[in-house]
Structure formats: structure tokens, C-alpha cells
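Repro:
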Amino acid sequence: MTTFVPTVNNLIAVVSASKESNDPSPDLSSDAYLRLMLGPWKDLKRPWLVQSESNVRRIGRKLPDPPCTMCKGTGQITCKQCRGRGRTNFIELVMLPKGEWPNWCRDCKGSGLGFCDRCLGTGEKRGIMGFHIDQDEQNENAN
């Protein structure tokens, strides 16, 4: 018994099955089965094209002013442990040798990127942090 099954691309796949198998599909002629399965979709002349990005307005991320000098405002730098490869074995090679599996970096979790140490991932230039102790207050506290 030959069964016609519609696929995703509106193509017809021919599936052969023996009579002894318990096939739940109805025993229809191929033309009737095709009309039953495809219904109104069989009359489509061209595939539908869906462009998801054309209708989406992209809002770019503004770089902070002034940006961090280390990460240039992105907030991310290459991982120091894996040197941006994402793996800890064979760091000096672009591709792994045949038969080798990557050992993923635990610091960046395989992405190859880490947070900037200077701006703590914000991308903004940080000012000097600290405090100032006047000499007069220091002398009074000592007495």
C-alpha cells in the first residue's frame, strides 16, 4: 500500500507500507487522499516568505559618554582564562584536532567574553574612588 504524506514544504512524500501492518490511515485512492490531506493548501503557487526583521525597528544601544577606556563602552572584554576561545584545551589552535572535544571555560561559560574589571560591565568610565582625611581631624582623633 502506498501512502502520500504532506511535508513541511508542501511537497508530497511517498511512504510504502505492507498490507500486514496495522496502518490507521484510510484506504483511499492517492488523489482523494491528497485532496483530503492538503485541502486548500494544494492550490498555493508560491511559498510564503516571512521577513521578520523588515518590520522590526532596531534601537541601537547608545555608548556611554565617556566610555570605559578598557572595554570601549561595551562592558565586555575577552576572557583572560581562555583568551576569547571559550575552551581551555588547545587554546593556541583555531580548530580542535580531530577527535578532541572542547573543555569549556568555567569563567566565561564558553562565550569567550567576560565582564570588564575597570567599569564592572557598565561601560561607563569610573572616576577615582576613595576618601580624603584632613590632617587636623587625624591629630584630634589621636589625642
